[in-house]
Amino acid sequence: xxxxxxxxxxxxxxxxxxxxxxxxxxxxxxxxxxxxxxxxxxxxxxxxxxxxxxxxxxxxxxxxxxxxxxxxxxxxxxxxxxxxxxxxxxxxxxxx
Length: 96
Hints:
Blueprint (H helix, E strand, L loop, with lengths): L4 E4 L2 E9 L6 E6 L2 E5 L8 H14 L6 E5 L5 E7 L3 H9 L1
Parallel strand pairs: 2-4
Antiparallel strand pairs: 1-2, 2-6, 3-4, 5-6
């Protein structure tokens, strides 16, 4: 797979570069070894993290409860664990 998407048992780990405060939430290509996502939420009171989880849940068609922010809560560089989806399906829904 890629550096930004890894299988971890029955879960998928994503390495993301997040840009809060954008006009709309969208995928924005690659940034170094991470997938870049622009978010239409400000980085205040966890709004950007909530927006990220909602965006990923919608894009990957999984429940929000299956998405866990495991690193970078107050950083642009984030690590996210997603259960209930395999790496090939996650990759297809995020970059294809």
